Amino acid sequence: MKANQFEHISQKQAEEMDLLTEDEEFELYGTKSCKYIAYTPYIPEGNFENKNRLGWKVKYYSAKKRTPIQRDGQGNEIVYVLQNDLHPGLLKIGYTSRDIGDRIREINGATGVIGEYKVIYECKTHNGQQLERAVHRELSPYRVHSKKEHFNVSLNKAIKVITEINKQF
User: Fold this and answer.
1) Other Cβ atoms within 10 Å of 39 Cβ, number
2) N or C, which end of the chain has less CB nearby within 10 Å?
3) Residue 143 carries which DSSP code?
4) pLDDT tens digits for range 38-88
5) Would the pTM of this model clear 0.70, i.e. be above it?
6) φ and ψ at 37, to 5 degrees?
């Protein structure tokens, strides 16, 4: 990729915009869709005498913003809540016993998925599959489709249901 394909921003602007770096985006979503580039001056190693000869560090940023993730519970399984900006108001509530990043990449890579899901809540548990089923039963009035894990429910309500039911396990 050429530098002129990117919008130039400062490191401070990237931080203020709360953007993911290209490596962070790849780790979370398995994609690299860089939109911004930032150059930061630095003194190359071993060049302390001549501070006029600066080097430049280049950092690429995605248009994706960081999503705050709330984490609760203990255990090696996870019940998660995902959100997709292209489906406002809908939450996907699921479970995994694998690495959450791998699971998200799998979901986002599925045929027919429009937009990308982001983890907005995860609850560690020792009984992920049972917790997921109990949460789905409790939230069934909010379920969009009987065979899907999508719910038209607020994040606060979903978290409350997950944490309350998790106390029983």
Assistant:
1) 14
2) N
3) B
4) 887 766 665 556 556 667 778 877 776 666 566 667 788 999 999 998 988
5) no
6) -135, 140
Distance of CA 155 to CAs 63, 65, 105, 145, 160, Å? 24, 19, 22, 18, 9
On the 0-12 / 13-18 / 19+ scale of CB atoms within 10 A, 157 is: middle
- Domain residue ranges of the chain, discontinuous segments joined by +: 3-65, 70-166
Strand blocks (E) in the chain = 7-8, 19-21, 34-42, 55-65, 70-73, 77-84, 91-96, 117-125, 150-151
Site of tokens 């911004």: 36
Name residues whose C-beta falls within 8 Å of residue 25's C-beta, 6 or more positions apart in sequence. Answer: 31, 32, 33, 62, 64
Q: Of 70 and 10, which is predicted with more confidence?
A: 10
Interatomic CA distance for residues 151 and 1, integer angstroms: 40
Whether 66 contacts 25, CB under 8 Å = no
Question: Position 28: which residue type?
Answer: L
Q: What is the pLDDT of residue 69?
A: 60
